[in-house]
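Aim 2 progress update. The chain analyzed this quarter is reproduced below.
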Amino acid sequence: METIKAYFALTKPRVIELLLVAAIPAMLQAHRGEVHLWLVLGTLLGGWMGAAAANTFNMVADYDIDQKMGRTRARPLVRHTVTKQKAAVFAWVMLVLSVLWLGVLCNSWLAALFILLTNFFYIFIYTKWLKRRTWQNVIWGGQPAACRCWSAGP
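Predicted structure tokens:
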């Protein structure tokens, strides 16, 4: 059970919750208030998997600095509950499942593309480049979240 909790913690569920709550009104607006329950739930699940991948990749990339900050010392990789290699595999699985889920089952390859783009931006631009070089990372770090909300459209 501890292992399951550790993998769930890798996804940063509180952050994802905010993204998904913001995605619902965007989906309803895109469909002019018409509710397609399967599409909403399917898109939320696909978006959750994509965000889970990004957040897990982020923890893998930030393993070294997470050990030094008090706020992040309880994360699964720092506590060695999950290895970096297993976390990376988990992130890749979540990313591939998200893209396929959104593209095939939700019939939105555009949403799948946004998931890929936001993962790329979040990991390479925000986490590996901006976060370690400038205080402006907090300004630019919000861009992937905005794209995830945009991907909830029709």
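Residues 72 and 119 are 21 Å apart (CA to CA). Residues 37-61 form the longest helix (25 residues). These observations will guide the mutagenesis experiments scheduled for the next reporting period.
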